[in-house]
Design a protein that fits this description.
heterodimer, A: mainly beta, Alpha-Beta Plaits, two-stranded antiparallel sheet, 4 strands, B: alpha/beta, Rossmann fold, Pyruvate-ferredoxin Oxidoreductase, domain 3, seven-stranded mixed β-sheet, 14 strands, elongated, binds iron/sulfur cluster
Amino acid sequence: MTNTEKKDRGLLRIDTDECKGCGLCIEACPPKVIGLSERLNHYGYRTAVYAGHGCTGCGICFMVCPEPGAITVLRAVLPPSRQTSGLPHHDAEGASPCASN
Amino acid sequence: MSNQAEAGYVVSHGRSKAFYERFERKSELQHQTHFCPGCGHGTVHKMLAQAIDELGIQDRTIMIGPVGCGVFTYYYFDVGNVQAAHGRAPAVATAMKRSRPESIVISYQGDGDLSAIGSAEILHAANRGEHISVIFVNNAIYSMTGGQFAPTTLLGQKSTTTPLGRSAKAEGYPLHISELLATLQAPVYIERVGLGDNKQVAQAARAVRRAVENQVRGLGFSLVEILSPCPTIWKMTPVESQHWVRDVMEKTFPLGVFCDRTREAQAQTAPAAAPPLERIPEILGVVGAAEPEFSATQARTAEVDLEVRIAGFGGQGVLLLGEVLAEAGLDAGLEVSWLPSYGPEMRSGTSNCHVRLSSAPIDSPLVSAPNMLIAMNEPSLRKFDASVRPGGWIIYNGDEFPPECMRKDVHVLAHPFTHLADELGDARACNMTMLGALLEIAGAVPQASIDAALHRLVRNPRWVELDERALERGRAVCRESMVEEVTR
Ligand code: SF4
Ligand code: SF4
Ligand code: SF4
């Protein structure tokens, strides 16, 4: 990510061990940024995969997903418009600010 | 995904704390549920867990699990858990809430569980306005057992037991639980939601939260019915079954709020806790009524094995006779059982009871072959005389023993006991005269225990006095008749 690139409002994390590949999140995602993997996971399911960008952080995929921990949705701490301002920011999990920023 | 990519982001939707970290159901799959891919149960579990998180009630929540696909709530929710017998979750929830009023009690049930075998429990819990939250997952079929039709199955829907589709004529119409319960006065909140699309899912999450929150606010009975996909039994993909909820199921089960009295409802303080055990005698008015003192472990030498059947007309004091005998046995330190045999005869006709007194533990309270029969009238004698064990006794209230009932292998004491009681002042004391005779024959129970039992069970002093005389009179008649027999 570069300073000029617009940062997404949301970010999707999928735990491929927990996902059962039901596809409900794929159907639910408004901007359609979730797909199904070609690879099978440990249990023989194709799993949901995030396209890598475009998530709005709406959380709908999380709500429809039947598995407790398959989906985690993250939201940008600062509004995207201020992302390029160079202000230092911290994420909630205590990691240091992204080095590339 | 690396931390670097996530820097600048915080988790907004993640695993609820109300779930266990690991589901220790079996060694594999400890982070997954047991539900099929796309099953609505998982989605509902997540909504519930989220509500528990948000309301901050994890430490005082008790989840009552059902029988059915939803059975394993106790593997998932890190709260108090009880798994109820089929259909009985609302009854268990009632007990939980009443005995632990500060708890938040959530009763989780599927449609096979709630609307069929448990239809009585849910109806009465709702009608009593129990302060519980009911989560009712309706997928219109018995899923766990492989797809039999349920009361909620749609007309025309095929199942293993309605292979041609449910017909109203043969199986009745789909049962509308929410509408049905909304006709009651007590519930404060009943809503039906679905998992048919994003909008419905969002509304469902709100409703689940409300149902729990109502309880936190002390408002009363809340129920959310959730139309929920079962891709496996419906034989559809998860996405198809989601759409089926919205496009088909919803036509039979319209969504909406069927009852909302949350505004009028007064936040009720918890019902008074049950009184402590020590206070029960006082409440029942039995204080001072001579607590059992086990007066008579007193020199009991012989082994006791009394199997008594007492029979008479309703109103002759059959049950009390048995009670005094059993209570006296208890006082004497014996094992006892007392089993009244209720029947349509309670008002008239014969009634009877089974009493056992034994020095050994009693296997069954049923007395099918008594060694003592007290027959307070002829019909009772005729009903039971053949069942008396050889060597046993028949004590009969009558002027003469019917010859055709005579048996060579049993002893008979026949006497008009009613007259005895009449002479003493009240014919109703007949039962005690016969008990006196029995005690004289059996000799198993010390007089002190009988006195103690009588004082505990008979409240009116006038009757205690009369009964004491009746017992003694019965004993005397018994002794006299024995002498007669010997001298004859
Ligand atoms: S949070 Fe919303 S936008 Fe992002 S992946 Fe999930 S559904 Fe799509
Ligand atoms: S909804 Fe959950 S389980 Fe289903 S595919 Fe998406 S992440 Fe996997
Ligand atoms: S059978 Fe149906 S209700 Fe049961 S776990 Fe599977 S999808 Fe869910």
